[in-house]
Design brief:
By secondary structure, the protein is α/β, with parallel strands linked by helices. The chain has a single domain (5-193), classed as P-loop containing nucleotide triphosphate hydrolases (Rossmann fold), CATH 3.40.50.300. It has helices spanning 16-30, 43-60, 62-67, 119-126, 163-177, 190-194, 200-208, 214-221, 236-242, and strands at 5-9, 35-40, 76-77, 82-85, 91-96, 108-112, 150-155, 182-186. The protein has an 8-stranded mixed β-sheet, sandwiched between helices. A hairpin with a 5-residue loop joins β4 (82-85) and β5 (91-96). The N and C termini lie far apart (50 Å).
Length: 246
């Protein structure tokens, strides 16, 4: 809530989407006329995430539900699009991580599972969406307001050498040079197990499985980014991605 740029790398069952959507709802309540968005690899995926989490949050905290504008034509939910309107004029919705979102305007956003978002689309479409600051109730703009151009990146660990990893390193550097604006959070499977959100026996069964892959487990549950061979001349994953076999 207190930082403009936040990058979170968490394993499965860490409640990362739950916490992120809660942040969006609180920001919408505290900042009237705020326009926020959620984007992920697929539009239907992001719609499903925010619908599920908003329903869960409203059941847990009825005060959040009372802030939503449920009148006809306001809060709308469909298979691939959701918009949650608040009584103070704020809202957040889901956008597709494609060229179709070009030209829209929002004040901040949540990038869900950002390892699945194309880096070019993020830089050329999604980030420019946030180039306008929120208009306050007195008609003024406060460009330095934390909400404006705020970006929350949420993901499980992926591969080094990718856009998502480079963004993580950039955020890390920002956390050192501008600690009032940038922040990184991370965690492993141990917290979900401690809080009874994840069953320890499930993880033990995963490791005992004959198809167990240590690198995959490290990415999904230890938040460790997989890399190529040390001191390699080129990144093997990038090379294979662009190679076309006839």
């Amino acid at each position: 809530m207190r930082y403009k740029y936040v990058y979170m790398v968490f394993p499965r069952a860490y409640s990362k989407s739950f916490l992120s959507v809660l942040t969006l709802m609180i920001r919408c309540i505290l900042y009237p006329r705020a326009k926020l968005f959620v984007a992920s690899g697929g539009k239907e995926q992001s719609a499903g995430i925010i619908k599920e989490k908003v329903d869960e949050l409203c059941n847990l905290v009825p005060a959040l539900n009372r802030e939503l504008d449920r009148r006809p034509g306001k809060t709308r939910i469909s298979k691939d699009y959701c918009i949650f309107m608040f009584k103070n004029g704020s809202y957040f919705d889901n956008l597709s991580a494609t060229e179709k979102s070009r030209g829209k305007r929002r004040h901040g956003g949540l990038l869900e599972e950002c390892v699945g978002i194309d880096g070019k689309i993020l830089n050329e479409v999604l980030i420019p969406i946030m180039n306008v600051s929120r208009l306050c109730m007195d008609g003024t703009m406060q460009p330095e307001e934390t909400l404006n151009k705020s970006q929350i990146y949420v993901t499980t660990a992926g591969w080094k050498g990718t856009f998502a990893y480079d963004k993580l390193i950039f955020t890390l550097v920002g956390m050192i040079t501008k600690p009032d604006k940038y922040f990184i959070l991370g965690g492993t499977w141990r917290i979900p197990v401690l809080m009874k959100l994840l069953d320890r026996t499930f993880l033990q069964d995963l490791k005992a499985d004959g198809t167990y892959n240590e690198a995959s487990f490290d990415r999904e549950y230890e938040s460790k980014w997989s890399g190529t061979a040390e001191n390699a001349f080129f990144n093997g994953e990038t090379f294979d991605k662009h190679r076309i076999l006839k």
